Amino acid sequence: MSMYESPPDGDGHGNGMHDLQIGKAPQACMSCRKQKRKCSKTLPACALCERMNRHCDYTNAAPPPSSEDFNALRQKLMELESRLNGGGMNSQLSPYATPSSANLAATDNLGPPVPAFTPPQDVPWQGIQNRFPAIAFLDSDNFKYGGIVVPKPNLEIPVDVLELLGDTETVQATISEYFATVHKWMPIFSQKRITRNMANPLWEAGPDLGLLFLCMKLITSRPQDGLESSQHPLYVSAKRFIALLEATGTATLLMLQANILVTWYEYGQAIYPAAYMTAGWCTRYGNMLGISGNTYATDLLGRVGTWTEQEERLRTWWGVLIVNRVVSLGSQSYVLNSQEPKKGDPLPICDYAWDTDDMPTAQQALVGSPISEPVAPFPRLCQATIMLGKVFSHNYGDEFPSETAQYDAATQLYSEASALAGKITEEAEADQDFYGHASALALTYSTLCTLCDKYSRPKGGKSPGNESSDMLVQAIEGLKTVSSSVVNFVNHIDVHTQTLQDLDRISPIIMDALYSAAANCAWMVRESGDEVYQNALDAIRICLRKLGTRWRNAAEYVRILEAQEFSYAVGSAS
Length: 574
Hints:
Elements (H helix, E strand, L loop, with lengths): L15 H6 L8 H6 L11 H6 L14 H18 L14 H8 L28 H4 L1 H6 L13 H7 L2 H13 L10 H7 L9 H13 L13 H15 L5 H16 L5 H16 L17 H22 L22 H5 L21 H21 L5 H29 L2 H22 L10 H31 L3 H4 L7 H18 L2 H17 L4 H22 L1
């Protein structure tokens, strides 16, 4: 059975004495009455409760107040408070405090200011059971060979998540927008599989699928003026829902995929340290599921049943590697992963074959395949990720017997990364697909900048030797070359982002390359005052401002550049 599909529902017709004779309850169970859903009345548990693996209660006791009841009471209380403080009968306070609402409350002359009211979210923490088998970690061999299965999450989708998701048409619109935008640069989901799943009502699917749809809506949302991205209702509900699923011991591929989207949102909207921590969570979770290629890991997902399932696991793990390395750019604190890709590991198949579900006939390249071998944009992004991993290892992990060996290794890495950038540029021009190749090309530029930056400054405390001086010159020339390429890249962005819809197709992956090139240009302006580098800096900064309307990490980079420029101006004046 597909992991996106639910088991078929039981048949529940009939009533009265006939129901009692065939083993049916005289009334709906408490859970179905509370949620206002049709109950099959089967004994000892109705079809819905049995599918959700929860206790089915047929007692005649009145169901406890629902979240809608509490919300209605809160609304009445808010209206009474508004009257007492001089407000009109129709006054309503926003559930999310904003600066404008706070200022409005502060200017009320009829009484003390009323604090913005934030209704507490009803989270079903009570009664949560963690049924994850501890033996999977305490004795993995017995878990593997004992036929023990990790149970599916036993949890209802929270009310606030259902309200944010909307009806089936709204969910379908969210999915369509996701596959038209984010999927173009992070194609880790099977479009056909998710489309088939939409034939089933959302409430009949597992809660992890509901979380995935919520995170799809989150990653496709644009920043809102006056609202911090960390306070976005979709983000707050997603993080709370994830914590809830963690408490139940959920171990599913959907859970990991949803968290990859959350990490991209946190990175793209510059929410720290959350982005860095969530990226690490994804790495450990992927290792736990057993999709990382580590033969010693416990396989919690079981054997794959289809080509699609196998490819989706592979693409999801590559998604983990990509987001983990991109988030580490600039932080100088990349933690090397024990499951680094090996030469014999497969790359994702052709993107077209993946989207059309035609995988058996598609060719699959390997990690060790030569760069000259043609591959699709997403495998190219994976190759750029591998190259970045090599540079991280060179900068932070590798030990060399001598400086000569270190410089030789750096020169070889620069040559390989430059060849990859040239190949991607060639394919982008041939395919006339800027959006598809932009992420891989930008990540390659970031890789080159990360490598050259290490050798572009003299080592403090001692005079550089001939080899060190030569390496410093090569690194500076490398930064100039990469920065020039990024300026051309920026020109392509300007041409392809004429509307807001175009910005939605741009990946946040590209921002580090733009900032690195801008920082290099600013440094060269301070060193030489060359007008060429000043024009390049201005062009990159204008592009970052435009992209900042979609991804706030671009706006943060602009702020950093302006702060550096201000500090330099003050220092020069004094």
